[in-house]
Amino acid sequence: MQKYLYIILLSALTLACGSGTKKNNVEGTRILTVTIEPQRYFLDQIVGDAFTINTLVPPGTSPETYEPAPSVMVDMAKSNVYFMVGDLGFENVWSKRLAKNNPDVTIINCSEGIVRMEGHDHDHDHDHSHADGSCDGHDHHDLQADDPAHVHSHSGIDPHVWSSPRAVKIFSRNMLETMMELDPDNAGTYRANYDILLAKIEKTDSLIRDLLKDVSSKSFIIYHPALGYFARDYGLNQISIEFEGKSPSPSQIKEIVDVARKEKINTIFIERSFDTKNTTVVAQEIGAQVFEIDPLRYEWDEELLRIATILAREVK
Fold first, then answer.
1. CA count, 13 A, side-chain hemisphere, 72
2. What distance in Å separates the CA atoms of residue 121 and residue 124, rounded to the nearest whole number?
3. Within a domain: 166
4. Which of 31, 188, 203, 272 is paired with 250 by a 20 to 30 Å CA distance?
5. Cβ atoms within 10 A of the Cβ of 78, count?
6. For the ranges 56-60, 86-90, 177-181, 272-276, the one whose mean pLDDT is highest
7. How many domains does one find in the chain?
8. Weakest-pLDDT range from 77-81, 216-220, 240-244
């Protein structure tokens, strides 16, 4: 089995305003800001060395609970563009403040044009989502994501669109179009770079489909429901331990265990920075293996392939 290294790349950027600045940036420095590391990966592929890219959420930190320090707003204000994921908790409040106080900073919602799914905070009802957005079972409200008429929210919108190569095509195209407008002199270069990125995305999608085409178990358990779009694309069923952003009660754990036994689930994912106690309890009850994953990893394609490889492994 191919092994993938965890490589966390940190951008330690000390930015200071000086005289003769252009658009609030240090003279000669062009800055873009993103929320999470996978965005930096996509943007790096498009712009190359033309811009410095700053990531707001540090590796190992949950973007759902992240609260930027006041100094972060100062650094954001030096950017030409702030690229939001689109539905992460703090983004809307902070983007409004940024827009009000720094009208020269362009704010882009990278998820614009992607049909979002309803959040899967406690999805234990045998609802198997398929790549076309349809599902088996009785709980159809949050899985028919390709039909806007079916998208409505009880527990909020699932923001983890970057777990879907299909969605990432739109996500990264929004970045491309912004950069072509911002820097038209280099639009041709950005377009060519995007075409290379698009080929990588399609190759990743193809490899994942090959890995999962004969997977023995279509269901997996995850502590925080970060792979909903991934599950939808590849006909899988994500069952989350976390309930509405909180640790589950004993009765909720029992429910998870009962479903897991019925569906013969053998894989449990735990993400960095999340508590492992409840995950360990469930794993011991059902005899499943626990794997730490990092959906916020910079090496986006490698991490998705690693997740697919785990799901496709031969269980003894």
1. 18
2. 9
3. yes
4. 272
5. 22
6. 177-181
7. 1
8. 240-244
Q: How far apart are the first and last CA of the chain?
A: 15
Mean pLDDT estimate for the chain? 80
Q: pTM, whole model, 2 decimals?
A: 0.79
Is residue 23 domain-resident? no
| 3-state SS, residue 137 | coil
CA-nearest of 79, 76, 60, 78 to 68 is: 76
The CB density around residue 17, as the number of other CB atoms within 10 Å, is: 12
Which DSSP symbol is given to 141? T
CATH code where residue 82 lies: 3.40.50.1980
* Distance of alpha carbon 82 from alpha carbon 95, whole angstroms: 8
Find out whether 290 and 241 touch, Cβ atoms under 8 Å. Answer: no
Cα–Cα distance for residue pair 186/180, rounded to 1 Å = 7
pLDDT value for 68? 80
Where do the DSSP E strands lie in the chain? 31-34, 52-55, 81-84, 106-109, 219-222, 237-240, 267-271, 289-293
Residue 117 CA to residue 46 CA, distance in Å, equals: 27
Tell me the helix, strand and coil percentages in the chain, rounded to 5.
Answer: 40, 15, 45
Residue pLDDT, tens place only, 2-46 = 333 322 222 322 222 332 333 334 445 799 999 999 999 999 999
Q: Is residue 291 part of a domain?
A: no
